[in-house]
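Exam revision sheet. Question 4 asks you to relate a sequence to its structure. Input first:
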Amino acid sequence: MILIRKDLEIDYIYYAELEMLMNYQVGYPNLLIILRERVYQEGLEESPYVIKADRKLLQNVHRFIELMESSDEPLEDDQSQPIEKWWWHLHKLAKGKYPSLKLKDYLREIYRKRRKHWRQRVKENHLLLEDLKEKPKYLSMLWKS
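Answer key, structure tokens:
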């Protein structure tokens, strides 16, 4: 017998929506930000569902941003939101420019470990772009100065 809760709590909906989006690319990235805000407003931040979803979101923040940017309504960081509400500042997190002490302990650990890697990745991408600015020798006859 399958039991289905009539009134799903917002913490579980947040968790389930994130799982669907990250595992199957089904869902709306913007909805997740709104759901995370509701979790905060309803005081459900200590829920095991929320903790698990938050960890997954932070670990996959670059992928999540890619999904957000490809959605019909791309979402940028909301500077009007307090910095403590990290879900409104995902681009800062992805760039490694978010103040780690503003994160909950369970997220701070993940962020500090991955921040160095993220910053290195940004530098490598920048260097690749610089290399592309030079004209390739094999295309020199096609390249117009």
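Marking note for examiners. The first helix runs from residue 10 to 24.
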